[in-house]
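re: ur question from yesterday

yeah so i grabbed the chain u mentioned. its 144 aa long if i counted rite. heres the sequnce exactly as i have it in my notes:
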Amino acid sequence: MKLFVCCLLVIAANAVTAAPAGQKLAKLREVLNDFKKINGSIEHNGLMLNTPLMDDDEKCCAGSVLKCFSSKLSELKTTKAEHMKKFRRNLEKSMIEKSVNACSEEDTKKAICQACEDYSMKDSRVFMQALESLLQKAYDRLKN
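ran it thru and got these C-alpha cells back, copy pasting raw so excuse formatting
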C-alpha cells in the first residue's frame, strides 16, 4: 500500500511540474500562429522601428526585449487589427515573458539591458523577423 501511495505521489509531482512547460509551449504556439496571421497583413511602407537584435550577451534581457517589441507593435499598420490586439495581449502575459527568458531569475536581475529607444532603427520587416526569431527560439528551447 505504501508503495502504491509513493507511486501516486511521484506521478502527481511529475504532472504538476510538467504542466507549466506544456502550458508555456501551447501558449507560445498560439502566439506564433497569431504572429503568422498578422505578419502577412502588415503594411511595410518603410517604417523604421527600434529593433532589438539579441546576441548571446543579451540572452538574460529577453523579457525586456519582448516588452520593447510589444510596445513598438502599435506603430505598425495592419489590416487585421483584432488579431494584432490579441497578439499584443498575449505577448504581454508573464507566461510568455518567462518562456522567452532562458536565464535564472537571479541572472535576469543582474543583467544590464538596453532601453528600447537605444536599439538601432530598422525597417519594419527586420523588426518582425527579429520578433519571430525571439519567439521561435523560445519555442524550440521549450520543445526540446
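noticed a couple things. Residues 5-10, 12-19 have pLDDT under 50 and may be disordered. also The two ends are 36 Å apart (CA to CA).
anyway ttyl
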